[in-house]
Amino acid sequence: MSIPFGRLLLIAHLSRSYLVSADAFSSARATTFSLVIILLWCAVVFVGVAHHEFWRDEVILLTIAIKPDSVFGLFAEIRDAGHPLVWYLLLRFVHNIVQSPVALPITSMAVALGGVLVFVALSPFANWQKILFIFGVFPLYQYSVMPRNYGLAMPLLFLFAHYYRSRNNNPLILAALLFVLANTSAHACLIAAVLTLIWIVEYWLGERRKITLHLASFSIVAIGGVTALVTTLPPADTVVTNAVSSGIGLVETLIVGSSHLLRPAASFPEIWVGLPSFWMGFAFWGLVAGLLVRPTRSIGLILGALILALFFSLVTHSHIRHQGMLYLLIITLYWMTLAETGAVTTWAARFHRRVASIGLGALLIVHAFLGVHAIQGEITGKLSSVKDLAAYIKTSAPNAVLVPEPAYIMEAAPYYLDNEMFFVREKKYAKRAALTFHRLTHLSLEQLLQSAQELQLKREKPVLIVLGHINLQNRHNYEIEFPFAKVFTWSDNSLAYFNDHTEKVAEFTDSPGPEQFEVYRLRERTEPQ
What residues does each domain of the chain span? Predict the structure, then answer.
């Protein structure tokens, strides 16, 4: 049945009117369009989650959140985890309701949906830009399918941008949002500091009304930053960051900082999708220029890029989800500025609108392609073998005690399994590896086998050795150094002895990441040699 040409024209006109409008809920028809788009986003994210293999660095956050008997125990538990408190509190709250590891994806999807709803309903961008943004790689995948604390930045930053226009009347709302934001991740804490500086400078250059209330608001944000620092600053014996293990000097900081000042965009290749260095710089400085209508915010964007780049260089590694904090800062600053520019009467305002439409629009289009590609990768690919390993253990050895080496490769297992895990280096049952230097740094294959034999005699239960050191027989250096300051060693004789006393029952090595496994069963319950 064909659709009349006139009706097609009407549909095209209505669609065009909706796409160029900035109000997603201006009418019943616009509301229908917006709800359909949001439901489509939810469906795509759900498909991604259904195919997602949960990684160790995702699951350990839930493990930490639910381990203490009380909320107050979280303060000690997160000291070597590298993240502030808010995400753990949220996971713990949801887990108390559902009593299942699915609290992890439920929390992540709910937070991301909150960010999407705020963006679609309140942002001043055109609806076509809103659609591209929510189907971009960060809202669609990195901050939704990937259940990490970084997604919390979306609703908090977007609410901050929304309320910033009325900042003189409700500074406490902004302070509360930045307080919480600072306690979601170390990267978000840096972004919160940048936005606070912009807020302080623009307040000082403005009318400066309600000074007592504003001083109290700025103090609340400062307390939030201190709280984040105190709760996440790791002990001196941890290996969680390069900063603690190697130290950072002032001269090193100045040298690295000056190099980033010359090329601030170079530390964020994932945002610019691998463009050549010149074009990365062109895109970044173009976005900076687009904010010159509010010079403080141009400077804020540069400062945000610099301090994040320094953090990547001197403290911890950079991943797309970390780089996404700069992307969210860009969106936030443009939101704040679009909401305030009003009538376009100056060259700076006209240039700002062009960059917000064309330049930012082009970036949104590219990120939408990345988002679709990421979901496709979840459906067709396999990023970890832990789900397959868990399925094997459930059917073949549901009561077995697992002895993993290295221990951290099995930190995703608690999402799928209830089996006990014994960490030989720490000589205890646990669900996550301790990241301190006091644990056994050197472990041999002989020690691993002996501990497994002793454990089987003691517990009278099957014991499975789960090796993440793959294919030892074809390695000739007899030593493996791996993350968290650990070393594993073996010899030809010890490998032969190990093979005589164990049976390789399964292997899961068809994923590209580090979570690959060889599974060995002890042949007999004998006294350890």
Answer: 5-380, 386-522
State which amino acid sits at residue 454.
E
Instruction: To the nearest 10°, report the CA torsion of 67, 52, 106, 146.
Output: 80
Q: Check if the beta carbon of residue 197 is closer than 8 Å to that of residue 241.
A: no
Instruction: Return contacts of 33-41, CB within 8 angstroms, 24+ apart.
Output: 33/127, 34/120, 34/127, 37/120, 37/131, 37/134, 38/113, 38/116, 38/117, 38/120, 38/134, 41/116, 41/134, 41/135, 41/139, 41/140
User: Residue 383: what residue type?
Assistant: L
Give the distance from CA 365 to its chain's centroid.
Answer: 22
**CB-CB contact of 414 with 63 (8 Å):** yes
pTM tops 0.85, yes or no: yes
Task: Identify the CA nearest to 387 among candidates 366, 419, 417.
Answer: 417
d(CA 222, CA 230): 12
Alpha-carbon torsion angle 418, 422, 425, 431, nearest 10: 20
Cα 313–chain centre separation: 18
pLDDT at 242: 44
In this predicted structure, what is the pLDDT of residue 300? 97
| Res 383: pLDDT | 85
Show the tokens assigned to 176. 């509360």
Residue 406's identity, in one-letter code, is P
CA 279 to chain centre: 26
Each residue's pLDDT tens digit, 280-333: 999 999 999 999 999 999 999 999 999 999 888 877 788 999 999 999 999 999
Strand pairing partners for 463?
Answer: 401
Residues 6+ apart with CB under 8 A from 411: 56, 57, 59, 60, 63, 431, 432, 433
